[in-house]
Fold:
Amino acid sequence: MSLYHGEVLVDGRLNRRNISFSDNDYVQKDIYICKGNGEEIYVPTFTYHGFRYVFVKGMTAQQATSDALTYLEMYSDLKELGGFSCSDSIVNKLQEITRRSDLANFYYFPTDCPQREKNGWTADAALSAEHMLLNLSAEVSFREWMRNICKAQADNGALPGIIPTGGWGFGWGNGPAWDCVLVYLPYFTYLYRGDRKILEENAHAILRYLDYLTTQIRPDGLIAIGLGDWCPVGRSFDKYKAPLELTDTVVSMDICEKAATIFDWLGRTEQKKFAQGIYARLRTAARERLIDFSTMTAHGNCQTSQVMAIFYNVFEPAEKQAAFARLLDLIYERDNRMDVGVLGGRVLFHVLSSFGFSDLAYEMITMPGFPSYANWIERGATSLWEDFQPEGGSIASLNHHFWGDISHWFIRWLGGIHYNTHLLGNEVDIAPAFVEKLNHAEAYYIAPEGRIEAKWKRQGDGVILSTVVPEGMNGYIRLPDGYEFEDGIKTIPVVSGEFNVKRTESVLA
Structure:
């Protein structure tokens, strides 16, 4: 008996071409020779499969009963720490399939896909680290995988694109946007879970990588050595609009900034200064060579370049409003549809919300038709896909997690839980966006300090906002423009309770 596992049906038949290597017949295939002694039970050993459909060859019609096959969910023992739901069934489905892809791709360490490579691609984990930590107890697994990452580091400080590796991934498949996992996992794990051990264990490897990064700076002060804005909407994997020198330089800036923060948390003053010095050098070059200040446009003139330059502070605070206006132009030119790869997609919706445009971010995620997350649901997605392609386009994997930061956006901006965003510890701001097309939304996160909840629902012209925060938690409840508490105040110290929120003016998307 042969069992073939796959994701796609074509004309009613299983098609595995999107996941097989050179049409290798043994990919995602099990062979079982029956003993012939009555009922037999077979469970694959030393392997697992990502699949939606199974084609069984060698079974008789009488044996093909509804209970002949049972699927077992296999993934690391991760506990649920956070969640989100709202009045939009599409958004709820997106939260559900993000969770499914996270778990399907977490087998001791985060993999890229459960059906094809099952590799520990570094960028995938870096892009997903924050939303995974907001949803699941991944910190122990992250800490263990960081030991593998440090072991894989070359003598010159470079990292491969997949970990574990047999040596592949240093010449192609890496670069700052992939290597940043070395800093992002410790940074976000400490930020959300508060255990300093992951910082202490990896500080030396981070310092070695920073030293390596200095050797990759070009004479013009920029970096362009790796993969860029991967999986751009509607195009092949590496045909991205954002220039590599922009994405690599900007991500390198962020690596240095987060490294400096890690060294500061650890009290390592000299290492902090070293990281800050590289950051300043890269930012100066980025501002000199990658920004047209006459139009406040980042090099590449595309959504990814513009939003990354805003998010990662290439622009000065006084310049950001004009830079954001240029980003809006780039979005409006695409009829409010996203035109990014994974690097731009990771930050696009957060930037929109930070400037008060959560309604636009919500529209881009949920609008029908290509490209949008809702379009995946329209086309039957039960997990996150690897890329955004039109109907009939080639999609390599139907189960990837690196587009899953929408869950982080749901919890932070729609639900309103902004946990430890000021890096002070023991703090949370409750600051939901009352998106016009939603009637209610709620989110929770079980922080080290205790359970945090935020929920809101419309009532007449106003909103009822309910909060639960651990005793002694610091922070504020902040209302968006167009709303205020009964006494006219927009910000109060964070506290558990139920609050009547008035609408004071028409809120524009």
About this structure: Residues 244-265 form the longest helix (22 residues).
